[in-house]
Amino acid sequence: MLTDTTTAADDKIRCDACPVMCYIKPGAAGACDRYANHNGELVRVDPHIVLERTVSHGGRLVPFQAGGDWDGKIVKEPDVFVTAIGAGTTYPDYKPAPFIVSSVIDGVDMVTVVTEGIFSYCGVKVKIDTDRYLGPEAATVRAQGEAIGHVTTGEYGSQMLSLGGVHHLTGGSKKEGRVTCDALMDLSNCKPVELTIDGGATLVVQAGYPPIVNGVAEERMRVGCGSATIGMFAKQWHGKVDEVVVVDDHITGVLSEHQAGKLLDIPDTGIKMKGRRSTPGRYFQVAEPGTGWGGTKISDPLSVLGPFDPKKSRPGMTMLMVSTTGEHAAYYELDESLKPIEKPMPADLRHSVERIQENCEPALCTVLFMGGAGGSLRAGVTDNPVRLTRSVKDALTRVTSGGAPVYVWPGGGITFMVDVTRLPAGAFGYVPTPALVAPIEFTLRLSDYAALGGHMDYVRPLASLKDNTEIRQMPSQPSAPGQRA
Amino acid sequence: MYLADSKRLHLQDGPIDLIVEAQGSESNVRAAYDAAVRRFTGLLDELCEELPLLRQAADPARCLLQGTVARRMHEAVAPFAVDHFITPMAAVAGAVAEEILGAMLHKAQLERAYVNNGGDIALHLADGERFTVGLADRPDAPGLMRTMIIHADDPARGVATSGRHGRSFSLGIADAVTVLARTASQADAAATIIANAVDLPGHPAILRCPAHDLQPDSDLGARLVTRGVGELSGCEVEDALEAGADSARKLLAAGLIDGAALRLHGEMITVAARALEMPGSETAVQSAMESAMHA
Q1: Where are the domains of chain A?
Q2: pLDDT given for residue B295 in this prediction
Q3: Neighboring chain A residues of B178 at a CB cutoff of 8 Å
Q4: Partners of residue B217 in chain A, C-beta under 8 Å
Q5: Nearest CA of chain A to the CA of B51: how many Å?
Q6: A85 has a pLDDT exceeding 60
Q7: Are B208 and A4 inside 8 Å of each other by CB?
Q8: Buried b vs exposed e over A195-224: b needs ≥16 C-beta within 10 Å?
């Protein structure tokens, strides 16, 4: 028999929201499941988020626009949007009660309001802002040793991972499915997850935070490729240094040969680059990819240079070598034998390196959750599921996830993507199937809802949610005194 | 506070969350709801006064509790207390539902009424009336509904569900055990006992944890409660359900319940004196193993 060892420290608190006066351990909820101990603070945890309330408490807004043109107001009065997070699959219990009696519909005394979707078909797309080499394209990405996805095509300044999907969730071993589900849920809930790439790096990915590659936190996303950096900064370097090399795994730039240098009449320096010349001043494959300078594996930038041409070079010539993020930089002067010798960097060149750093955006991991709404979920919304799909395609029904805007893929089904940082904390859950539970809201005109076979008897006016007995707050906010009926 | 349809009353206090509906003449419905609100006010405080005693194992022979709801809780669990560890808290939800329904019926003539306390339900049916109760095969898999019909001439006036997905802890592994009994408090207590019996003691795939590690003041103390259930073979699911069904059959024979539906990993087994009326299911054969498709 296994024993759960997730016992927390003994700093339990006593909830005073009702006379039951539960003792609550950190990370746990009281008997009501509505109040919890969040880092020693009593908070409400049933997070139906009513925007007006969030605004009045200074909470963060998830933009949402029900229709028409934006009139410039942050909250389009009197719009209030209620998210599905924590709604559960049946009303009224926050952890769903399987039995519910309510008013009659078609002779059945039942309520089913599906507002949290169970996604067996889901995954995350991870964009990691780094030039560092994470691993070969199509390499397997692992969590706890289990294959949970792969490296996909590199994008601008970023490496991309595609994780999860029905194959890893259900097609592999039981453990593979569970580990995949855990990793997807943690990534979707903006928690850090350690991943290893076959033949590549070990990284820690957390949505909204810099990636940590082989133990080193990435700070900046490249200002541009090496060639673009030359173009952007050529004027600032002109007259201050004879040669500049911007080291980049993809396109290394050389000032004196580059079109930007030619236009400024910068003379040849006799530099000799390794790698494959693409066009003047632009070189591919100057070194192997890696986690060193500019996404190459080098730690000594001189290793990308051949000997200087004695016909064009002269002793005392100056050279700046810098990476595409400005993270690495070094200054050299040629000695009598035309060998570059590292020297302290002059202030004005150091300033240009700082300018490169300043122009780099912070490197982040971004995580898009992608899921497809299946038959059972749609059936919870309407008697005639395909009409919901059509309604979404016809833009009559707006799909949101935890109130956050989604991109709905064209084509069949309701497959959407959402930036997980735009959902409130803890929005994603799981079931041991394994599958993820994600909030999904379908918003449409009441008349359209009736037309597509909606469960009209269960439509509640917003006012019934705004009553103080059901105000639900973000878990991160301090609790209001419990309103008792 | 009323729900959107202005027909149902929603009462909430601490962990108590009630959906109440009464049907009858307008004046009777109003009187019933007034009575429900009046009885509900202070009810939680009343229970909390005796909370320490309510959290102790029930003595099958005598009851030291004072409050009417507390005494009803004790009465409901006492028949089980001879053979099992059980505290009156096992019947709290059903007992509260029953108390509120009783207060309503005391003040009003109603055709139908129910008080649903988070899935533990007290029913009232005048002659000739009936209730259709919908049940989900799994609380996390929407859209898979079965229904059961309870007629006025059936003895059951209480429905309760217990299992490891609910708000309270379970010693067993059942996804849900739903019980029909004479009263909601009896159904509540019996559902707890049967859900605890759906188990595979010592099975390596079952994750358990002392209850007080999760909730320091849990009435279950150091008893191991189920936190996770891993892969089980079809035979194991059947064994676990059969263990629960065995317990249910004994309670049925003793007249403590009128029927039970036990669910685990998509399999369901029902125990009843006669086949439970389930119009959604074509073969509602008693004690039959049924597979539920998972969409």
Answers
A1: 61-221+361-468, 226-359
A2: 21
A3: 98-99
A4: 22-23
A5: 8
A6: no
A7: yes
A8: bbbeebbebbbbbebbbbbeeeebebbbbb
